[in-house]
């Protein structure tokens, strides 16, 4: 049995991956994964067959060691748009968007032999919103994480790193208040995409088509299923991965 560890397993994306994975257990290509859903607020008493909820902190390497006992593939969905002051120094963009995934990669590299590389899927971001909407450290911390993951020789030898760069992720299951914004961006991106070369970098966020949590989760399942997938995947490539997985349904 292959195990899958989702860092941020109780969030919007983590929950969608669990939901989609459980729907596909009848498929011949299904991994027969046991999923460990990890977050600071996870409740182990909510565990169900095939899914175990694990309370741990991605910034605390000691709390992560046990979840890695089964040598899992890992999907890292943790991130923040706004610095979380309630967590003090652990709530900054650098700590949440960058250091959490580097901690995870370091543990994977220390435990894995490199013969059978496990996969680490990191949720980065596409084009950043303009600075008047969002602090630029948001995207800078994401890009720094990408560089550290893809530029480390030991990581390359022992981990199959896949970086996803989606734009806005919307859901019909959670945060439905985001749906009007997602619809507006879908329409806007369709209009602006042909004009991308004329649009300043600071406004290219508005050319990124939002993706549903279903599309995202199907793309992740395809990544886990195909050992040849590696490196950075932009929005159109993510959509293509989701369609490839859909053909297996």
From TrEMBL:
It comes from the Eukaryota. Residues 5-174 form the NAD-dependent epimerase/dehydratase domain. GO terms for cellular component: mitochondrion. InterPro entries: ComplexI_NDUFA9_subunit, Epimerase_deHydtase, NAD(P)-bd_dom_sf. One of its GO terms (molecular function) is protein-containing complex binding. It holds the Pfam family Epimerase. This is NAD-dependent epimerase/dehydratase domain-containing protein. It comes from Thamnidium elegans.
